Amino acid sequence: MVFMEGGVLHYFHDLDEFMDMMYALLKKGGKLICSDFHPFTKIVDILEFQQPAMDYFSADVFEGEMAHARFFDEGIRRNMPKCSYRKYTISEIINSIIKSGFCLKKFDEHPAWTNSMVPGEFTAIAVK
């Protein structure tokens, strides 16, 4: 089983290569479970991570703070290294899972913890 949770996809700038590696790690019948931030967060900071809003279809890589940086005092926060992000659309995520050879079994969207009327996370389950 490969389990990813809590927002990891945006750290990888080539999603197809990443999914290919996840596929290669598993034996036949192995399961991928990916629970991550919903791409809706590209257009609004609904999860209050203090990340910039952008064009939903943007493929740009941008620099920003790690999500947990906001929990530190300003002096510590200022000295924390920045990260490069690449936020994907729902179709890019789903298509990358399928393209790598996985059989997508389930895809669920979950409400944001700050506003239950909009998506905040998703879970994809696929099998090799």
Q: Total domains, how many?
A: 1
* Span between termini: 10 Å
> Helical stretch count?
3
Structural class: alpha+beta
Along the chain, the helix and strand elements come as: EHEEHEHEE
Strand proportion, as a percent range, falls in 25-35%
The gyration radius over C-alpha positions equals 15 Å
Structure, described:
It is a single chain. The chain has a single domain, classed as Rossmann fold. The protein is 21% helix and 29% strand. The protein is built from three helices and six strands; from the N terminus they run βαββαβαββ. The protein has helices at 15-25, 74-79, 90-99, and strands spanning 2-5, 31-37, 61-64, 83-86, 103-111, 119-127. Helix 1 crosses helix 3. The mean pLDDT is 90.
Summarize the topology.
Elements: E1 2-5, H1 15-25, E2 31-37, E3 61-64, H2 74-79, E4 83-86, H3 90-99, E5 103-111, E6 119-127
Parallel strand pairs: 1-2
Antiparallel strand pairs: 2-6, 3-4, 5-6
Helix pairs in contact: 1-3
Summarize this entry quickly.
This protein is 21% helix and 29% strand. The chain is α+β, with helices and mostly antiparallel strands.
